[in-house]
Amino acid sequence: MSVGADLVLPPRLVTGADGPWEPVRADLDRHGVALVYSRLADWPAPPGGEDELRRLLGRDWARYRELAGRPNADRFRATRLLLKHVAATAVGAHPHELELAYGLTGRLYVRGCDQIDLNLSHTKDVALVGITSLGLIGVDLEHEGRRVHGSGIEPVMCTPDELRRLAAAPESERNLQLLRRWTLKEAYTKALGQGLAFRFSHFGFDLPDSCGRARLLRPEGDPVDEHWWTFHTQRFADGFLAGAAVRDDGRGRNLDTGLATALDRRTVQVLWERQSAAHQPPGGD
Fold first, then answer.
1. How far apart are CA 262 and CA 245, in angstroms?
2. What are the C-alpha distances in Å from 12 to residues 45, 62, 69, 149, 178?
3. What is the DSSP letter of 46?
4. How many whole angstroms separate alpha carbon 158 and alpha carbon 18?
5. DSSP state string for 75-112
6. Is a pLDDT exceeding 90 seen at residue 258?
7. End-to-end CA distance of the chain, in Å?
8. Taking the C-alpha atoms of 175, 181, 182 and 183 in order, what is their torsion angle to the nearest 10 degrees?
9. How far is 138 from 158, CA to CA, in rounded Å?
10. Radius of gyration of the chain (CA)
11. CA dihedral in degrees (236, 240, 241, 246; nearest 10)?
12. Inter-residue contact 148 to 179 (CB < 8 Å)
């Protein structure tokens, strides 16, 4: 079951906790996939102060405290708040009710919410989140101003077939072609949970003339018959480039992702009570 051409969706801009979230929910309901981007500056500490931030971050609070005073502390807070709000939109919950967790390879997931998968990328002052109810998703974000062509990275990043395609392309197009392949390879390996363990020179992509759907290729250029995967790149918002890889596990697009309907209501209540108790500050603080 292939995802279909309608996967090539525009990343939806949200400008903080107030969204707008309706387009994100609509994309998920219709396509089973949504891409969301936001400026990190749109996610300051919440008005409720430290107690409210601790409630929202949950188990990530300890990590945030370790980063206090460092330049990436604000980025960590902003991306985790964005992830929580995107996931909450998908499952019909409040952000503080959800817990982000990390697999053995560091891959993010929402604890107890197997009905969705999500992935994060960020560059400069922008973060991109991909979320799906179809199976797996990986995303990557780059800025078109990043110069990679001529840096010597080509043999490490490209297959022999891709090197031939790159040499045949007009000089003015080579940097963007490399960036598009970079985002696709990052997205694919992130979806698989492989990261840098899957060498980029071991698989390639056939790119359309403009951004859009791409096709997975073997190193010598033969197509790979993995019809359950869909890949695309898209340009948006002041020169940013998004790459996405989605695997459709055949769950269907009308899957109910709601938290209350995915779990027994009593189970939800017990989990919520235990989580709330675990995050109560010690007496006297």
1. 25
2. 22, 30, 31, 29, 25
3. -
4. 41
5. HHHHHHHHHHHHHHHHHT--GGG--EEE-TT--EEETT
6. no
7. 54
8. 110
9. 19
10. 20
11. -70
12. yes
**pTM for this structure?**
0.88
* Coil, helix or strand at residue 41: helix
Helix (H, G, I), strand (E, B) or coil at 54: helix
CA 140, CA 128: separation in Å to the nearest integer?
Answer: 8
- N residues, the chain: 285
Angle at 197 between CA 193 and CA 202, to 5 degrees: 105
Q: Is the distance from CB of 40 to CB of 77 less than 8 angstroms?
A: no
Nearest to 141, CA basis, from 149, 129, 150 = 129
As a whole number of angstroms, the distance between CA 14 and CA 33 comes to 16
Type of residue numbered 171: E
Q: What is the mean pLDDT of the chain?
A: 89
Residue range 129-166, pLDDT digits in tens: 999 999 999 999 999 999 999 999 999 999 999 999 99
Strands (E) located in 112-270: 117-123, 126-132, 135-143, 204-206, 213-217, 229-236, 240-248
Closest CA to 175 of 203, 153, 144: 144
CB 211 within 8 A of CB 233: yes
Q: How many helices (H) and strands (E) does the chain have?
A: 9, 11
Q: Residue 250: left (phi > 0), alpha (psi -120 to 50), or beta?
A: left
What does DSSP say about strands 135-143 and 240-248: parallel, antiparallel, or unpaired?
Answer: antiparallel
Instruction: Give CA angle at 37 (259, 147), nearest 5°.
Output: 140
Q: Which residues pair with 108 in a beta bridge?
A: 102
Q: How far apart are CA 132 and CA 120, in angstroms?
A: 12
